[in-house]
Write a structure and sequence with these properties.
Helix content is about 30%, strand content about 25%. The chain is α+β, with helices and mostly antiparallel strands. The strands form two sheets. The chain has a five-stranded antiparallel beta sheet with strand order 4-3-5-6-7, with no helix packed on it.
Length: about 150
């Protein structure tokens, strides 16, 4: 069996410093148990972290805002208002899940109970931790924009 350069570096670390080997082993165990590590300390699974997806209401006023980039809305002077949106889905974050993964799932692998359109520009993702709003993200043309004013306007 041939060893790649990465494999040989791992073997070198294992034999040169046994503490590095045990640290890598512990990290592997955390990954296998679906736990997270932050600053070297174990974190809880994401059971207390949830998200909600919001899509623009099907009204005359909101139809004109559908699929507009955040910059375009800003040029028009239109804030991202929570009152313009309907909640179309809520779920629990899985370990390792982030905004990009949510976007991918709601474009390629719709859950059976999802009734909205594929996640797209002008939709909003709200992240919660311990049942409290943590952040609001506008799905933009490229990436996401924080919109803390989402429920405040």
């Amino acid at each position: 069996m041939e060893w790649t350069e990465a494999d040989s570096k791992i073997r070198e670390i294992e034999w040169r410093n046994p503490f590095d080997f045990f640290f890598l082993l512990i990290l592997s165990l955390y990954a296998a148990l679906d736990l997270e590590v932050a600053e070297g300390l174990p974190m809880k699974n994401k059971e207390n972290e949830t998200y909600e997806l919001f899509q623009l209401k099907d009204t005359a006023e909101c139809r004109n805002l559908m699929f507009l980039s955040f910059d375009h809305l800003s040029r028009l002077g239109v804030p991202v208002r929570g009152s313009h949106y309907n909640k179309v889905y809520s779920g629990t974050l899985k370990s390792g899940e982030n905004l990009d993964r949510i976007y991918e799932r709601f474009n390629l692998y719709h859950p059976d109970d999802f009734r909205g359109h594929s996640l797209s520009v002008s939709d909003v993702i709200v992240l919660h931790k311990d049942n409290r709003d943590q952040a609001y993200y506008y799905v933009d043309s490229f990436g996401f924009r924080q919109v803390p004013e989402f429920f405040g306007v």
